[in-house]
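Recap quiz, item 2
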Amino acid sequence: MKAIASAPAKIILAGEHFVVYGEPAIVMAIDCYAKVSVKDRNDNVIHIASNLGFSGSFKGNRFQPDHGGLGAHKILEPIRIASQTALKELKEESGLNIVIKSEIPVAAGLGSSGALAVATVAAVGKFFGVNFTKEKIVNLSFEAERFVHGKPSGIDQAISTNGGIIVYKKNQGITPIKVKKKIPLIIGNTGELRSTGDLVKAVKIKRDRFPKIIDPLIKTAGHLTTKAIKTLKSGDLTKFGELMNINHGLLSAIGVSNKTLDNFVHVAIEAGALGAKLTGAGGGGCMIALSPLKKRKKIAKAIKNAGGTPIISSKVDEGVKSWIQK
Amino acid sequence: MKAIASAPAKIILAGEHFVVYGEPAIVMAIDCYAKVSVKDRNDNVIHIASNLGFSGSFKGNRFQPDHGGLGAHKILEPIRIASQTALKELKEESGLNIVIKSEIPVAAGLGSSGALAVATVAAVGKFFGVNFTKEKIVNLSFEAERFVHGKPSGIDQAISTNGGIIVYKKNQGITPIKVKKKIPLIIGNTGELRSTGDLVKAVKIKRDRFPKIIDPLIKTAGHLTTKAIKTLKSGDLTKFGELMNINHGLLSAIGVSNKTLDNFVHVAIEAGALGAKLTGAGGGGCMIALSPLKKRKKIAKAIKNAGGTPIISSKVDEGVKSWIQK
């Protein structure tokens, strides 16, 4: 027998970067999943195999790669941390065979590592007969995210655990909001890798150089996100699309868009999107286009023709789930 | 003998669109010229020939095209208005042969019609032995600009007449500012025609829909232009370039950029521009890149490779000038 858990990826609908300066951000779980299966072993080895081509064994802190060489450590270590944090919570001392099957592009701002950590914690709990509470899953996956991100906001674990849409504000934490509409998106992955930390730093430098411009711009972005929350609740997707376009411009103004993202945004709108914006840190990574259901294929094709990898996607209201497979 | 006058084109360095809502704009004369030559005729016909392929005769208000069909009327009528306004001021009743040689792309936001009106007025004056004052030239070219733009701000005639750099603010008029640096630019013409009026209207609609977002955004743009004025005076072109990039993002946020403009902005920066932005109404027309002198060819080539027409250009401190040719 084995335990399996799956957890959704996330996108940021509004407010990225400005959230660092105390403005709200809107985060949504999408139907793109990381799946983790867990079973025990007779030894105390944690063996992890990922569909990304990395696998290896952890004996205590020592890592032995099977595939992917020593680069595998960086990829698999957060899974080890998540599984061992869960084992410790359960007061279990077993070895584990962990198999990862993730649909979520890595390092693209879609919360791949958060979803993996959450699914790992939930699967380990399930295997040993425990359904961790959502709060517990969020907390137990924190250490793994700290390994990946340094100072994680906690937002990725929260959305992968809870699903749906949440509003995050620094020092005020997380507030789920109810949105009835489906929120159909096309995600456009540029495939361009970027460092979130570097982009956050670049914005800070710009703000330090031009406080009289960037500070009111950040406030403006805050007003936009507040309006976007109301608009989402009302279900007016046309208006929400317009707000996405303005939001993308504000992100361009602080210097975090790039040529590819701007191009994908324009081709998506030309193909019928209600609005489009980069999502996450920018400088590469992904953009999202709000798509009328009938235009999804056309928009996806436009992004593909522009050199991107489109993912047809929607809000998912359920977060992590786990089950036993005999 | 004939009289010749030449007047420079203009670009907007900062503040377009936001100027409609009372914020300042910075306008600069560039070394790209409209040249008009004038001599008298024995009849009372005004014949106008333009290097754009239009020519025709005005007898009173009746127009007879030679080239360009009836479409020539719209192009040549403002020249007729400018010349007859000048004749009236001079209390002359002669017919005129007017020949236009303009380097300024038409309907691209570079103030082609303003420069033509100014040069026409100055040339007509010169022919009849009068050096109009600058103030007089601005006033006499107003009627022609009203024909073209409906409600002109007066800024295009002012900059073509005076040269240099001016700051314009609604209800406060025009203030020349002294800038020692050369301000080397590459202008990238998209060749995409757009209606300034439609774009101004679209921004107004956005503001009416989202006043709590667009109003502070406009104020932010005002702070930016104020900072840009100080930065220009100080001669810090690196900083001015950064402000151009932020300005372009704010213009994107109000929806007046487009795919081509964004692309030109990115390729110019990749090729070494200190900053880049759309200039004028947007939605097509032109962008400008602030270019270190050594990078001018590279940036011009990048814009050309991206499908644009580059114009290598700089600030010019002298405005309209006129002379007699025997």
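DSSP finds ten helices and 13 strands in chain A.
Chain A touches chain B at residues 206, 209-210, 212-214, 216-217, 219-220, 223-224, 227, 239, 242-243, 245-255, 257-259, 262-263, 266-267, 270 (CB under 8 Å).
End of item.
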